[in-house]
Amino acid sequence: MKLLKANKLKLFIADDDYYMQNLLIEFLVDTYDIYIFNNGIEVVNYMHSGEIPDILVTDLNMPDLNGLDLIKQLKSSDFFSVVPIIVLSGDDSSEMRIKCLDEGADDYLVKPFSPLELEARLRVILRRVEKKIIQVSEITQLVR
Questions:
Q1: Are the C-beta atoms of 85 and 58 separated by less than 8 Å?
Q2: Quick check: helix, strand or coil at residue 62?
Q3: Which domains can be identified in the chain, with CATH numbers?
Q4: What are the strands of the beta sheet with 55-58, ordered from one edge?
Q5: What is the rounded distance in angstroms from the CA atom of residue 125 to the CA atom of residue 117?
């Protein structure tokens, strides 16, 4: 696991492809603290240690615990289910996209993809999550 810290939003990347890891680091390191994992088991174990990402980007085809099973495991957890997930995959079938989205992924991009489009999709998801947090906070204040 590589760890690049810059005191920014925490982005977990689960992908066993070294080239893809480096591409994502190159494009996203200025905006995010990036944590790299080679499989879903590493992600889950790290999250159980108390480190929770602001967002997770995962490949589907990884050893040990693949991306789809990682999504299922995180979304079935009361504690980790709130983590937004984007899938990056070479599988361009509509069936797989629908399956991932139905299991709880927030978005799905097919490889090859535009890094600029990935950045835009990350921003959109984080904006949506931020609005939910603000709304919950406002409701909590009204109740008090």
A1: yes
A2: coil
A3: 3-143 (3.40.50.2300)
A4: 3-4, 32-37, 9-14, 55-58, 85-89, 107-110
A5: 12
C-beta separation of 17 from 59 below 8 A: yes
Query: How far apart, in Å, do the first and last CA atoms of the chain sit?
Result: 43
Residue 59's contacts (CB-CB under 8 Å, 6 or more residues apart) are 14, 15, 16, 17, 20, 67, 87, 88, 89
C-alpha span between 50 and 100 (Å, rounded): 25
Per-residue confidence of the chain (144 residues) as pLDDT tens digits? 555 555 689 999 999 999 999 999 999 999 999 999 999 999 999 999 999 999 999 999 999 999 999 999 999 999 999 999 999 999 999 999 999 999 999 999 999 999 999 999 999 999 988 865 544 444 445 445
User: What is the spatial distance between Cα 30 and Cα 26, in angstroms, rounded to a whole number?
Assistant: 8
Q: Mind giving me the DSSP string for 95-121?
A: HHHHHHHHHT-SEEEESS--HHHHHHH
Q: Take residue 43 and report the two structure tokens written for it.
A: 């992600």
Report H helices in the chain. 18-28, 40-48, 67-75, 94-103, 115-143
What's the pTM value of the predicted model, to 2 decimals? 0.87
